[in-house]
């Protein structure tokens, strides 16, 4: 292999730039030409492709977002769209592709692999919802952003003796909510993977209030439903003054944490190595601090699960 490409796709995540940097530098280290594809699979179909050099990825390791930009492409889900992408790859002589993104992006990578273009996936999403890896790039930064925000909310919650319902991202996964709730000492954590007993949520709030607790924090994963609806229900069921905060896109931006920069560098460099070693249709991951790779097809067929022991602990610690 003499020329490879790299793209970021789907929702961006802090650490994607560190991953792009590692792909480019590792490829050049192996004396391979590397091409950056802008705007994900959409840009691939449109031929928005340019050669990258060592300097193209200077001064980006600490930046949020993605210098290659990102998109969610409906057209690339079609056979015609994939053919358009393949024509562009042929035109530029690109023989293999590194795809940094989440499960939707890996579906595209799998299609290209099946059509003869070897792809390797690098898990980049704040949701931490990909099996085959303990962590995805961006999760740690998003988690720390949530915690910083909740710490601030807690100050005002205490001053006013209010209960705060905080809705966090995660799509259908509860990892961000669970980790943030545990790190923030939330009274209750509502996640899609666990059935919520609403009476238990109310009981915990009332118990805390009776003990003289000045604030209450309830973290709700967006996959459970609207934080505002939960807020209304809590207001009806308790005497507490409630407020709702939807953290939103603040969770997707910002400078990546050290953990995310290191994770991104390790995963992306490994992706280049296995692509050059002849592997295809694989996703790199980290499990027990060891680099691993799994078949993308296998990853896509598995359902994300949360750490149940951690969920139980969060409940035990907020009695
Ligand atoms: O997958 C990352 C994520 O931020 C999810 O947490 C959220 O549900 C989704 O993307 C939002 O996607 P979009 O920015 O395309 O609306």
From TrEMBL:
Substrate binds at residues 125-127, 162, 169-171, 222, 243, 249-252. Pathway: Carbohydrate degradation; glycolysis; D-glyceraldehyde 3-phosphate and glycerone phosphate from D-glucose: step 3/4. ADP binds at residues 21-25, 154, 185-187, 211, 213-215. It catalyses: beta-D-fructose 6-phosphate + ATP = beta-D-fructose 1,6-bisphosphate + ADP + H(+). ATP binds at residues 11, 72-73, 102-105. One of its GO terms (biological process) is fructose 6-phosphate metabolic process. Residues 3-275 form the Phosphofructokinase domain. One of its GO terms (cellular component) is 6-phosphofructokinase complex. It is found in: Cytoplasm. PANTHER family: ATP-DEPENDENT 6-PHOSPHOFRUCTOKINASE (PTHR13697:SF4), PHOSPHOFRUCTOKINASE (PTHR13697). Catalyzes the phosphorylation of D-fructose 6-phosphate to fructose 1,6-bisphosphate by ATP, the first committing step of glycolysis. This is ATP-dependent 6-phosphofructokinase. It comes from Virgibacillus profundi. The gene is pfkA.
């Amino acid at each position: 292999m003499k020329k490879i490409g790299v793209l970021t796709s789907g929702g961006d995540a802090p650490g994607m730039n560190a991953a792009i940097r590692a792909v480019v530098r590792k490829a050049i280290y192996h004396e391979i030409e590397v091409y950056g594809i802008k705007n994900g699979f959409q840009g691939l179909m449109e031929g928005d492709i340019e050669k990258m050099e060592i300097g193209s990825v200077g001064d980006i390791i600490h930046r949020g977002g993605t210098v290659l930009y990102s998109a969610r492409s409906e057209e690339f889900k079609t056979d015609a769209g994939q053919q358009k992408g393949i024509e562009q790859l042929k035109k530029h002589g690109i023989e293999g592709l590194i795809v940094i993104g989440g499960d939707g992006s890996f579906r595209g990578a799998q299609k290209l692999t099946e059509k003869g273009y070897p792809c390797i996936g690098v898990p980049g999403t704040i949701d931490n919802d990909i099996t085959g890896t303990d962590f995805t790039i961006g999760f740690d930064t998003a988690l720390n952003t949530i915690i910083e925000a909740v710490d601030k909310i807690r100050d005002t919650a205490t001053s006013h003796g209010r209960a705060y319902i905080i809705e966090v991202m995660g799509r259908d996964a509860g990892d961000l909510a669970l980790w943030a709730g545990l790190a923030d000492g939330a009274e209750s954590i509502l996640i899609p993977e666990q059935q919520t007993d609403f009476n238990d949520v109310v009981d915990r709030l009332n118990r805390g209030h009776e003990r003289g607790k000045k604030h209450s924090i309830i973290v709700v994963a967006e996959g459970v439903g609207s934080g505002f609806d939960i807020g209304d229900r809590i207001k009806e069921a308790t005497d507490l003054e409630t407020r709702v905060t939807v953290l939103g896109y603040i969770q997707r931006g910002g400078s990546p944490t050290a953990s995310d920069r290191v994770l991104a560098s390790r995963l992306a460099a490994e992706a280049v190595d296995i692509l050059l070693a002849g592997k295809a249709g694989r996703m790199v991951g980290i499990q027990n601090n060891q680099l691993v790779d799994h078949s993308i097809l296998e990853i896509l067929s598995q359902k994300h699960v949360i750490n149940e022991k951690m969920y139980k602990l969060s409940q035990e610690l907020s009695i």
